[in-house]
Design goal:
The structure holds two protein chains of two kinds. Chain A is mainly α. Helices cover 70% and strands 0% of the residues of chain A. In chain A, helix 1 runs antiparallel to helix 2 and helix 16 runs antiparallel to helix 18. Chain A is elongated and about 75 Å long. By secondary structure, chain B is α+β, with helices and mostly antiparallel strands. The chains are: A mainly alpha, B alpha+beta. Chains A and B meet through helix 19 and helix 20 of A and helix 1, helix 2 and strand 2 of B.
Chain lengths: 407, 120
Amino acid sequence: MTPPAAIEDLLRELAPQVLGALARRYGQFNACEDAVQEALLAAALQWGTDGVPDNPRAWLTTVASRRLVDEWRSESARRRREEASALDPVPAEAAASDDTLTLLFLCCHPSLSPPSQVALTLRAVGGLTTTEIAKAFLVPEATMAQRISRAKQTIKAAGVSFAMPAAAELGDRLRGVLHVLYLVFNEGYTSSAGADLQRTDLTGEAIRLARLLRALAPAEGAVAGLLALMLLTDARRAARSDEYGSIIPLTEQDRSSWQHDLIAEGVALLTATLGRGPVGPYQLQAAIAAVHDEAVSDAETDWPQILALYDVLDRTSPSPIVTLNRAVAVARVHGPRAGLALLGTLDADDRLAQTHRLDAVRGHLLELAGDFPAARECYQRAANKTGSMPEQRYLALRAAQVAQSSE
Amino acid sequence: MKYILMMFGDQASMTQARSVDWIREMIRFMHTLNADLEAAGELVAAIGLADASQAKTVRIIDGMPVPSDGPFAESKESLAGYWILDVEDEARALAIAGRVVAFTQGAMEVRAVPDGPPDL
């Protein structure tokens, strides 16, 4: 008998292929998505006891097509024409990979809000259930079901057809897809709310989807860059928190527990993209992560190299977060006061003033500068602002530590 | 039966009054407690809130809902976090609250969360 985990992996691999084939054949993404979800459920129940069929993809396609037909039959006679066409078999030899890519573009359609793009991608391409997605984002299941249902309605209302984007807009649309995968990974890597520091279900899913996209678009440097960034970041996962879920900062992590196979894979991916087209923000961030990953200790980190990479990132894709991270690199190369001066330029930025991050980094640089009372105040303010429990506790701990140092 | 266990206080007073070792112990205590509750199948939710200094209040002013900063209540009285537990009976909920209070030395409020009417 096939173990349930293997069946689940297989179903999630096949889900976007089957949905893609149906949507290309019949249009009506909304109805097709429902039918595929039902077929997946039937397979999960049946394959566990009866075994996996010889051609699981054809099995799912047939069952999902029947559900569609049943659905149409139960509507009315005006559907009869569609019904007749639905009885034609779906050509099984169609390029499954192209369908999956088209599906990914559809789920990340610009008419949808980013949270809807994320939810729809996880369900339609990732093959996750609504329950799983709701759990990962800490929202009630009914809320997530609504969000997915509205997203599908929006796609229908916008009259989006199941086709690859036109060549002229392909670049923009690919950036949109990459951004959605980046959001999924980030929410998993540093959960913005709740009791856990990281949600490995989301980081794992983001990496799986990025690998899928990489296989579909092997020539895109940005895709390889994003996958490399995820791998090089995820490699440090085990070292980021202790047995009680407390945060361990990069400077104090046990580097022997980093996953060196992921680091090697990320570095190889990144290296292969260099010299082949423009270097985008994902590649730059991956390069920064690689410099950290390849340093044997915090003291031996090549900070001038990291600063040089942040300088390029700052010129090509400036953002307050880039400035924040660059300030740390400036502090390590030119001293904490230089880093603090750069942070000062962010005080007027409303986007950061609302979050705890500016205070947390300023506390860190003040601590490096030996100004413990001011550092304590910043850490405390940051602890008061964050909505993440592990971060709150970590920052409270730093505040107490610098308070002790100043005594 | 479901119960809500509410904890009061704020970060600032906690870290000003406590040592690094105490905070480390607190983190371990909370982690172990939540793991125990989860293993027992009693944990519905364990929620820590952002500090009360970040709170907003929404009131009707001239017929319109208007948000404003803070409740600015006495910080010791503001909600810091809560657990929702599904336990055998009230005695069990009180015992768990007792375990927290023995550690934090602060009071906790325990209230029943009534379930809806049974399905007919």
